[in-house]
Amino acid sequence: MSIKRTVFFISDRTAITAETFGHSLLIQFDDVDFQKVTLPFIDTMWKAQDALEHINDAREHTGARPIIFSTIVNSQIRKLILSSEAAVVDLFDAFIGPLEEELRVQPSLGGSSHHPSAGDELDIRINAVNYALTNDDGITTKNYDKADVILVGVSRTGKTPTCLYLGLQYGIYAANYPLTEEDLLIEYRKIPGVLQPYRDKLYQKEISLAEFLYVSKNIPYLNITTMSIEEIAATVMHKSKLQRRIF
Fold first, then answer.
1. How far apart are CA 34 and CA 3, in angstroms?
2. Chain-centre distance for alpha carbon 152
3. What is the dihedral of CA 146, 149, 155, 156, to 10 degrees?
4. Does residue 213 have a pLDDT over 80?
5. How distant, in Å, are the alpha carbons of 6, 19, 233 from that of 87?
6. Rounded to the nearest 10 degrees, how much is the dihedral formed by the CA atoms of 11, 15, 20, 24?
7. Hey, is 59 helix, strand or coil?
8. Which of 94, 102, 201, 226 is the most buried (most CB within 10 A)?
9. Contact criterion met (CB below 8 Å) for 32 and 2
10. Which conformational region is residue 231 in: left (phi greater than 0), alpha (psi within -120 to 50 degrees), or beta?
């Protein structure tokens, strides 16, 4: 029987960093059944107290200490969360100290004008996700000039979730276009006309019937058979040399 533990991802912002970091560690423990809870925008003492009660209730209900991945900046809120009956992995405690010692610069622990505010980041995410939805599956091609990347592939190869992930996680404007059976026939095997002006933005995903098209037109592609959406998105970002708009 697998071990069951409750895991909290807590942040005074979106909690995406806590989730991403925590998940990358938790997947190393196959024999543990993690019950995951995300608590974003814990940015007041009142919200922190409510979160603390939630954490301690989980401890009482399960009989095991919950695990917390925290990216909370506010020192008072962090102190309150650290007082919980849980095992806390505080990303700031773990990494800010060594960086401060190496850089010999006092951290601001609140961001600065060099980085987007939480509100700005939210706007970037929303706009990028809306772009992915509006330009999904070749519904319209009139906005392709605004695309950072255009995923091209046959149906059911993960184009839509990858575009949404690129928008939500990186702020990337990603459109996608489906290849039809006609596109893959030898006599028609060519880049669809609507995509011709945007060749430098294309990124294709491979199945055996489509590989010839990708190779012959010198357009990058990848085999996604064993890849997660996160891996696909990260590969597209890296191979296409795209710069993320949010962190």
1. 8
2. 20
3. -120
4. no
5. 11, 16, 32
6. 40
7. helix
8. 201
9. yes
10. alpha
Tens digits of per-residue pLDDT, 137-152? 998 988 999 999 999 9
Name the token pair of 75.
């020192």
Q: Which fold has domain 118-239?
A: Rossmann fold (3.40.50)
- Give 170-200 pLDDT, tens digit per residue: 999 999 999 876 776 654 556 777 888 887 8
CA–CA gap between residue 55 and residue 32 (Å, rounded) = 19
Topology classification of domain 3-103: Rossmann fold (3.40.50)
Q: pLDDT tens-digit profile of 32-69?
A: 999 999 999 999 999 999 999 999 999 999 899 999 99
Yes or no: say if 135 and 226 are a contact pair by the CB < 8 Å rule. Answer: no
Residues of the chain with CATH 3.40.50: 3-103, 118-239
